[in-house]
Design goal:
Spermidine Synthase, Chain: A, domain 2; 5-stranded antiparallel beta sheet; 2 domains; 12 strands; alpha/beta; about 280 residues; 9 helices; 7-stranded mixed beta sheet; Rossmann fold
Length: about 280
């Protein structure tokens, strides 16, 4: 069998699969888990590939570590989304982080991830059992959670689905304003922003909205296994955070596999047409 996720204009990303392990419908979306032929288990939400176990770090590392390594002291971190546990796992690899709050809308995704996926490396289980003293899990809307927060977090990591359906609000100007207020000064905000080539308009819209809220906005991309790569990311900063530089001393202790802090500048290699529009 095979599973193909179709993008605009007839472009697809596919995997050979041995069998479907799970299919169910939550309040918000359809959840599927497949056993792939060569990449471990695969999580699919509403027909969209979220990750494959063998390669998911190619997304979670560039999502989390550039932002946290650019911040001078990321002690309090908020993760919005990321129900598979991968983003929270990477956040907790930083010993400077004293408190990590993960806010996931869909409890069913958490349950399926714990039962069928090996992504959080036990992090979700420990949090659910109250055995992870640095982390807190809340099942609610991330957009609602940040409303009214003032200078509560050094970093906010948004690991959302694409900007349609339940996740659309996470790409709105109102949400960016709430997130900006929830950041301390200095603070850093990072979100995934879709396929560079195939979601260009959505990427540019999010960039322009963020640019009207944050002090500075940076765009970068990374090749992600299972996605229509290169995949885009957007960073908004508050105060004195220079996202063009990262702390290499802290980075060396992380022993990363995909994102290379010593080649941080390569993140900003965007297509000429896109750079001109930005």
């Amino acid at each position: 069998m095979e599973f193909v996720e179709w993008y605009p204009r007839g472009y697809g990303v596919g995997f050979k699969v041995r069998k479907k392990l799970f299919e169910g419908k939550s309040r918000y979306q359809t959840i599927e888990v497949y056993e792939t032929e060569g990449f471990g288990r695969m999580l699919v939400l509403d027909g969209t590939i979220q990750l494959v176990e063998d390669g998911e770090a190619s997304y979670h590392e560039p999502l989390v570590h550039p932002a946290l390594l650019a911040h001078p002291h990321p002690r309090d971190v908020l993760v919005i989304g990321g129900g598979d546990g991968g983003a929270l796992r990477e956040v907790l690899r930083h010993p400077e982080v004293e408190r990590a709050v993960m806010v996931e809308l869909d409890e069913a995704v958490l349950r399926v991830s714990v039962e069928l996926l090996n992504v959080g490396k036990g992090v979700l289980e420990r949090v659910l059992e109250g055995k992870e003293p640095r982390a807190e899990l809340r099942v609610e809307s991330g957009a609602d959670y940040v409303k009214g927060k003032e200078a509560a977090f050094d970093a906010i990591v948004v690991d959302s689905t694409d900007p349609v359906g339940p996740a659309a609000v996470l790409f709105s100007e109102g949400f960016f304003q709430d997130a900006y207020r929830a950041l301390k000064d200095p603070g850093v905000y990072v979100t995934q922003a879709g396929s560079v080539y195939l979601f260009t308009n959505e990427f540019l819209t999010a960039y322009r909205r963020m640019n009207g809220v944050f002090d500075r906005v940076y765009a970068y991309s990374f090749p992600v296994i299972g996605y229509a790569s290169p995949w885009a990311f957007l960073v908004g900063v508050k105060g004195a955070v220079d996202f063009t530089r990262v702390n290499l001393d802290r980075a060396r202790a992380l022993d990363l596999s995909y994102y290379d802090p010593e080649r941080h500048a390569t993140l900003f290699q965007l297509p000429k047409y896109l750079r001109e529009q930005l």
